[in-house]
Every structure is written in C-alpha cells, then in structure tokens.
Amino acid sequence: MAQLVYFSSRSGNTAKFVARLGLDALRIPISADDPMPLPDQPYVLICPTYADGEGRGAVPKQVIQFLNDPDRRALIRGVISSGNRNFGALFASSGDVISGKCGVPLLCRFELAGTETDIARIRDGLTRFWRETCLMTA
To answer: Could you tell me which of 37, 39, 41, 42 has the fewest CB atoms within 10 Å of its CB?
Structure first.
C-alpha cells in the first residue's frame, strides 16, 4: 500500500489518528526549520482544518509549503481532512481546498482524533482506493 503524508499540530489529534491507522506515514513538520518529507511514491494527504469563522486559513501553512513543491504535489492522489463539527459548514474544509487546488478526490472527513469506527472505515476505504487506483493505472 502506498504511504500517507499528514500534518498534525501540537494538539496531536491527527498524529494519534494516523498512529491508530497503523499504516506507513510521513509527517509534515510543525517547525518551518525542520526538513520537509520527500515522498517517493503516491500518497494520500491527511490534513486538519484551522479555518477562522469565514473559512480563511483552513489549510495549515506547513501543508501549503509542502504542496507548493511540484515534485511532492505530483504524487498526491487524494485527501482526508479532519476538523471540529462545531464549525458547521466549515467542518474539515481543508479537504475541500486541497481537493480543488490539487485536482484530487476528497476521500473522507473525520472529527478531531477520530473514533474507532472512523479508523476502520478509513483503513478499509484506503485499501479499496489504492486497489482501484492501481487497476486504473495498470
């Protein structure tokens, strides 16, 4: 299975979620001084949402920096976003932004650190997604 790339703030919700998935993953660093990961195969990006009340700033700056590199952006195949349902229509809106900008599907959304149901649903969904993606490119 191809790898995941994710960003997690100091709260660690996304990192906890990815660890519970039990899949290979590269982390986009919090600090701009730390080196960015260099994926060597197609990946799905998992991104939290940090929008203000108007939807501005939904995608963390570190993720924007990561995706601004054409070589890294060329390997993205899908996005999964997280957020807090308290934000209503802006819930997990980073996925909508990344999907639109990168031309990849928004695969799903989950809240905060996710539930066990989210883990099972996303793990199964990723297995199906990569199998179908491989069949389409074969």
So the answer is: 41
